[in-house]
């Protein structure tokens, strides 16, 4: 809430070439107030206040899982993980090898609530968009379990879903050992 500590949101691009900046910039712009964290010249870590939702978020983007311990520390502090899936013409896979490695690390540690964001959908043909939505939905369900959500994303829909699933009630949480999909 507004009076407690900010909810920690970890944004995780699932493809190594995926640029999360448009997504992060949209969240930053949608906030009533936002401040970039000191010692971070790139705006990949900021606190956003949403007065109308009575919420504060600390948003962190994990670009690299090359340093597994740093990646896992970041994930351990997150209340909600937002895997990013970008809609791109010709993109056959939702996740690449680096993304699969990151997911394996997360499954080993356990995950909080998951709200996957499918963004840039308007940039591709409707036919390809429908196919990508089906693939992404199946992927999210298989990888994160039935409580995870896929949101074809505008900042408003993603924000509302994160608020709903990351409210601390445990309804959207996924932890290793609780879901058979995580223990394959």
Keywords:
184 residues; alpha/beta; Rossmann fold; seven-stranded mixed beta sheet; 7 strands; 34% helix; U3 snoRNA binding; Bms1/Tsr1; GTP binding
Task: Explain how this protein is built.
By secondary structure, this protein is an alpha/beta fold. The protein has one domain (7-183): P-loop containing nucleotide triphosphate hydrolases (Rossmann fold, 3-Layer(aba) Sandwich). The protein has 5 helices and 7 strands, in the order βαβββαβαβαβα. Strands 2-3-4-1-5-6-7 form a 7-stranded mixed beta sheet, sandwiched between helices. α3 links the parallel β5 and β6. The longest helix has 19 residues, at 126-144.
What's the structural blueprint in terms of helices and strands?
Layout: E1 7-13, H1 21-30, E2 33-36, E3 45-50, E4 55-61, H2 68-77, E5 80-86, H3 97-109, E6 113-119, H4 126-144, E7 149-152, H5 155-165
Parallel strand pairs: 1-4, 1-5, 5-6, 6-7
Antiparallel strand pairs: 2-3, 3-4
Strand order of the largest sheet: 2-3-4-1-5-6-7
Largest sheet: 7 strands, mixed
Question: What is the chain-wise order of helices and strands?
Answer: EHEEEHEHEHEH
Low-confidence spans: 167-184
Give me the CATH superfamily.
P-loop containing nucleotide triphosphate hydrolases
Distance between the termini: 36 Å
Shape: globular
The share of residues in helices is 25-40%
Number of domains: 1
Number of strands: 7
How many helices in DSSP terms? 5
What would you call the structural class? alpha/beta
Do you know the CATH topology? Answer: Rossmann fold
CATH class: Alpha Beta
């Amino acid at each position: 809430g507004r009076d407690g500590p900010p909810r920690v949101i970890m944004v995780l691009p699932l493809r190594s070439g995926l640029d999360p900046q448009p997504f992060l910039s949209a969240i930053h712009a949608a906030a009533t107030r936002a401040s970039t964290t000191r010692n971070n010249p790139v705006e990949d870590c900021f606190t956003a206040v949403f007065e109308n939702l009575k919420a504060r978020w600390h948003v962190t983007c994990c670009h690299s899982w090359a340093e597994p311990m740093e990646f896992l520390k970041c994930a351990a502090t997150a209340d909600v993980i937002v895997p990013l899936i970008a809609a791109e013409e010709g993109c056959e896979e939702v996740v690449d090898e680096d993304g699969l490695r990151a997911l394996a690390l997360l499954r080993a540690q356990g995950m909080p609530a998951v709200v996957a964001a499918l963004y840039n959908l308007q940039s591709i043909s409707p036919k390809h968009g429908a196919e990508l939505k089906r693939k992404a939905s199946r992927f999210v369900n298989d990888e994160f379990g039935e409580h995870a959500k896929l949101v074809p994303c505008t900042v408003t829909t993603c924000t509302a879903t994160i608020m709903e699933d990351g409210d601390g009630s445990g309804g959207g949480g996924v932890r290793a050992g609780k879901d058979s999909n995580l223990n394959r």
